[in-house]
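Z., the sequence and structure:
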Amino acid sequence: MDTTSLLVTDLEVDTVLADLTVPLAVRTVWQLLSDSDVRLDEAVALDVPDVELSDRLLGG
């Protein structure tokens, strides 16, 4: 199965984000991917110093 371009519906994203049994870190990545142009490989490569919460910026 080719997983390089899986599509996820808005309903699926909303369902995961509302499910408190899904770990916060997982929900955070889903939110990041949903709200930005960040690709999954870029998101998982981030380190804490790459994230500037006050300015809502990602570096890397």
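The radius of gyration is 13 Å. Helices lie at 10-18, 24-35, 40-44.

Let me know what you think.
H.
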